[in-house]
Amino acid sequence: MSSSTNPVAVITGGSRGVGKATALLLASKGWNVTITCTNSAKDAAMVVEQCQALGVEALLVVADVSSNQACLDTVEQSIQKWGRIDCLINNAGTTKFAFDHGNLDALDAEDFLHIYKVNVVGPFQMVKASRQYLTKSPNPCVINVSSIAGIKGIGSSIAYASSKGALNTMTKSMARNLGPIRVNAVCPGFIQGDWLRKGLGSETYDRALANIETTTPLGLAVTADQVAECIYNLMALSTVVTGETILLDGGYHLTV
Fold first, then answer.
1. Which of 8, 28, 102, 185 has the fewest C-beta atoms lying within 10 Å of its C-beta?
2. Which candidate in 116, 133, 160, 252 is catalytic?
3. CB distance 36 to 92 below 8 Å
4. Can you give the residue ranges of every domain in the chain?
5. pTM of this prediction?
6. What would be the CATH architecture of the domain defined by 8-189+224-254?
7. Beta bridge partners of residue 235, listed in sequence order
């Protein structure tokens, strides 16, 4: 086991979107990063190369957070490489697109169980695996990447919204009981990018984006880079904040 003078962050789901943006931002700030992915290893490897180009060390672990063993392996490989973990960013997530929440036939129990296993059980397992190492950090923190869906009961499906509501509640429970580790959640609204465009289809995506830009108080839909900035703020600067669910949506929640 080697030891790192740089702080170390583990980011699940780091191949694209918020995970990628956060990895690159942290690398630019001098953090070594582990990123995980399940089926986009080529994209994730490119993120690792981009982080390394910024002068830090980076590690890719192919791991499905719904597997407890994969979570243990991710933490073990990070510790073997650097001897420390200072921040865990639970970003890996999944959904099934079923936007009509009134159509209960669009989902079944297996959909719920799969979504919960990734979006709720996965973060729990990652925290459980990394807790003993986080407590040795001078500024230990966990950031759960949640969603406005978990606060407003909207979004890609009722199962997804429910899972993010559970993640928000777990954030508060952990914050109350895991000190000195700080545990917070960020809850973005509509995030501009390929993931939502693919899920919605380009026509619906463009229409939804235009609607958000004309109806929200700040006239914007957030970007992955803006979510990453808030994550970094909670990690490095807001050292007295714990148990919070921070809405990042340009004020969209005020209009729904």
1. 102
2. 160
3. yes
4. 8-189+224-254
5. 0.96
6. 3-Layer(aba) Sandwich (3.40)
7. none
Per-residue b or e along 82-101, where b marks 16 or more CB atoms closer than 10 Å to that residue's CB: bebbbbbbbbbbbbbebeeb
User: Using CA atoms, how far apart are residues 32 and 23, in angstroms rounded to an integer?
Assistant: 9
Enclosing H/E stretch for 120: none
Q: DSSP of 39-78, one letter per residue?
A: S-HHHHHHHHHHHHHTTS-EEEEE--TTSHHHHHHHHHHH
Write the single-letter amino acid at 47. V
Which pLDDT tens digits describe the chain residue by residue (256 residues)?
A: 677 899 999 999 999 999 999 999 999 999 999 999 999 999 999 999 999 999 999 999 999 999 999 999 999 999 999 999 999 999 999 999 999 999 999 999 999 999 999 999 999 999 999 999 999 999 999 999 999 999 999 999 999 999 999 999 999 999 999 999 999 999 999 999 888 888 888 998 999 999 999 999 999 999 999 999 999 999 999 999 999 999 999 999 998 6
CA–CA separation, 65 and 234 (whole Å): 23
116 in active site: no
CB distance 140 to 180 below 8 Å: yes
Please, which residues bridge with residue 211 across strands?
none
Distance of CA 101 to the CA centre of its chain: 24
Nearest CA to 60 out of 80, 71, 81, 44 is that of 44
- Report how far residue 138's alpha carbon sits from residue 13's, in angstroms, rounded to the nearest whole number: 25
**Residue keyed to tokens 């759960």:** 144
Numbers of helices and strands, H then E, in the chain: 10, 7
